[in-house]
């Protein structure tokens, strides 16, 4: 990922999320076990484990985050019934996806999900304004709690980029994921967006 030079790409005009039909860059029995470097919410001992492979630049992931995740989190994660884990993936434009994840990581574990949520919610604005860096600067400040200088340093952190690349490579080559969002619910793989009723049914089945 180092060669992508995230800052330079983000400054390029004409960034577009259109045409990313299935958010699929590149799939068979993905691992459903959370790794130490994954981000999770909820009780680790919850009976049901929900894993989502998502990309910060995927419109389908953004829609699920905005329209379904809040109710899912309130109903299952906050009540201790489900442990939710997000596994990072990169879809086009990969520079935007990488920047979103790097900013969320730099913000720290307590702010990771709020920052990622803000990135999802800012996708359309980034396309409309053709100013992804400006939108990301605002997100880095709030809810990220970072100054512009800290954001620049974050996006230029080569070690962080390499760590992200390693996670994505693991999800591609080991977990065999090809598209986002992909959900793993107690080992059962489901590709594509899920409605809350669909999650209700899948979680009920997993809980046995």
* Total domain count: 1
Straight-line N-to-C gap: 42 Å
What is the CATH architecture term? 3-Layer(aba) Sandwich
CATH superfamily: Glutaredoxin
Order of strands, main sheet, comes to 1-3-2-4-5
The percent range for helix content is: 40-55%
Structure characterization notes:
The chain is α+β, with helices and mostly antiparallel strands and 208 residues long. The protein has a single domain, classed as Glutaredoxin, CATH 3.40.30.10. It has 9 helices and 5 strands, in the order H-E-E-H-H-E-H-H-H-H-H-E-E-H. It has a 5-stranded mixed sheet, with helices on both faces. A hairpin with a 2-residue loop joins strand 4 and strand 5 (188-191). The termini are far apart. 41% of the residues are buried. Residues 25-30 have low confidence and may be disordered.
Write a concise keyword list for the protein shown above:
208 residues; alpha+beta; Glutaredoxin; 5-stranded mixed sheet; 9 helices; 5 strands; 50% helix
Question: How is this structure best summarized?
Answer:
By secondary structure, the protein is α+β, with helices and mostly antiparallel strands. The chain has 9 helices and 5 strands. The chain has a single domain (25-207), classed as Glutaredoxin, CATH 3.40.30.10.
What order do the helices and strands come in, and which of them pair?
Elements: H1 6-11, E1 39-41, E2 48-55, H2 59-67, H3 69-77, E3 82-89, H4 94-107, H5 109-129, H6 132-141, H7 148-155, H8 158-173, E4 182-185, E5 188-191, H9 196-207
Parallel strand pairs: 2-3
Antiparallel strand pairs: 1-3, 2-4, 4-5
Helix pairs in contact: 2-5, 4-5, 5-6
């Amino acid at each position: 990922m180092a060669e992508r030079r995230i800052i330079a790409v983000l400054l390029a005009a004409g960034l577009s999320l259109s045409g990313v039909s299935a958010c699929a860059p590149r799939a068979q029995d993905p691992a459903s076990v959370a790794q130490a470097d994954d981000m999770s919410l909820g009780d680790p001992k919850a009976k049901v484990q929900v894993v989502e492979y998502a990309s910060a630049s995927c419109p389908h992931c953004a829609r699920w985050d905005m329209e379904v995740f809040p109710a899912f989190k309130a109903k299952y994660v906050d009540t201790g019934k489900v442990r939710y884990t997000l596994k990072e993936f990169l879809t086009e434009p990969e520079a935007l996806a990488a920047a979103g994840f790097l900013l969320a990581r730099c913000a720290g574990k307590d702010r990771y999900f709020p920052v990622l949520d803000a990135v999802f919610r800012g996708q359309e604005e980034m396309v409309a304004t053709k100013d992804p860096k400006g939108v990301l600067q605002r997100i880095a400040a709030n809810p990220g709690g970072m100054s512009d200088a800290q954001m620049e340093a974050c996006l230029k952190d080569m070690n962080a980029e390499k760590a992200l690349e390693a996670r994505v490579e693991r999800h591609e080559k080991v977990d065999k994921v090809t598209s986002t969002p992909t959900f793993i619910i107690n080992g059962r793989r489901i590709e594509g967006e899920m409605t809350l009723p669909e999650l209700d049914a899948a979680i009920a089945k997993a809980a046995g």
